[in-house]
Amino acid sequence: MTERARRRVDELLAELIELVETARAVPMSGSCVVPRERTLDLLDDLHGSLPPELVEARQALAQREALLAEAREHGAQLVAEAEVRAHEIVEAGRAEHAELVSASGVHQAATEQAEQLRAAAEQDVTDQRAQAEQYAADLRADATSFADQTLADLVDVLQQATATAQQGRAALAPETPSPGTSQPPITG
Fold first, then answer.
1. Which residues is 32 bridged to in the sheet?
2. Backbone phi, then psi, for 28, in 5-degree steps?
3. Which residues have a Cβ under 8 Å from the Cβ of 2 and sit 6 or more positions away?
4. Are 15 and 38 in contact (CB under 8 A)?
5. SS3 track for the chain
6. From CA 179, how far away is CA 185, in angstroms rounded?
7. What is d(CA 62, CA 54) in angstroms, rounded to the nearest whole number?
8. Distances in whole angstroms, Cα of residue 97 to Cα of each of 53, 91, 145, 164
9. Fewer CB in a 10 Å sphere around the end CB: N or C, the chain?
10. Do the beta carbons of residue 48 and residue 8 sit within 8 Å?
11. What is the pLDDT of residues 21-69, one digit of tens each?
12. Crossing angle, helix 36-49 and helix 3-21, to 10 degrees?
C-alpha cells in the first residue's frame, strides 16, 4: 500500500467517524440519524481506496480456507482408509492366531496319537516276543519229550534184541557141560 493510498483511507475513515459523532440523536434512544447519501458516498470512496493487496489477501484467505477444507476432507478419508486397513490387519491376525492355535492343537493331537501308536506297537512286540518264546519253549519241551521217548523206545528195542540174542545164544549152546570139560566162552 502506498503512502498516498494510506493517507486517503485514513481521511475517509476520519470523515466517517466525524459524520457519526455529529449525527443527530434520536430522542430517548442511543441511536442517531446519519445522512444516507453522504455515508454511502464515503463508504464507496473508502472501498475504492483500499489497496489491491487487500483484495488479494481476501482471495488468498478464501483459497487457504478451501485448501484447509480439502486437506481436512483428504485427512478424514486417509484416517477412514487407515482404520479399515487396521481392522483388516487385526482380523487377519486373529485368523492367523486361530489357525496357529488350531495347528498347534492338531500337532499336539498327532503327537499324542503317535505316542499311543508307539506304545501299542511296543506292547504288540512284547506280546509277540512272549508268544514266540513260549512257542520255542513248547517246541523244546516237545523235542526233548520226543527224543526221550525215542531213546526209551530204542532202549526197549535194544533190550528186546539183547534178550532175543541171549535166548538165541542160549539155544545154540550145548547142554550144560560135564564137570571136567571146558567149553570156550561165547563172546558177544
1. 25
2. 65, 35
3. 51
4. no
5. CCHHHHHHHHHHHHHHHHHHHCCEECCCCCCEECCHHHHHHHHHHHHHHCCHHHHHHHHHHHHHHHHHHHHHHHHHHHHHHHHHHHHHHHHHHHHHHHHHHHHHHHHHHHHHHHHHHHHHHHHHHHHHHHHHHHHHHHHHHHHHHHHHHHHHHHHHHHHHHHHHHHHHHHHHCCCCCCCCCCCCCCCC
6. 15
7. 12
8. 63, 10, 71, 98
9. C
10. no
11. 999 999 998 899 999 999 999 999 888 887 777 778 888 888 999 999 9
12. 160
Question: Locate cell 485448501: which residue?
Answer: 67
Q: How far apart are CA 30 and CA 22, in angstroms?
A: 13
pLDDT digits 0-9 by tens, 63-116: 999 999 999 999 999 999 999 999 999 999 998 888 888 888 888 888 899 999
28 dihedral zone (left: phi>0; alpha: psi -120 to 50; beta): left
**In this structure, are residues 10 and 50 in contact, taking their beta carbons and an 8 Å threshold?**
no
d(CA 114, CA 122): 12
Cell of 83: 482404520
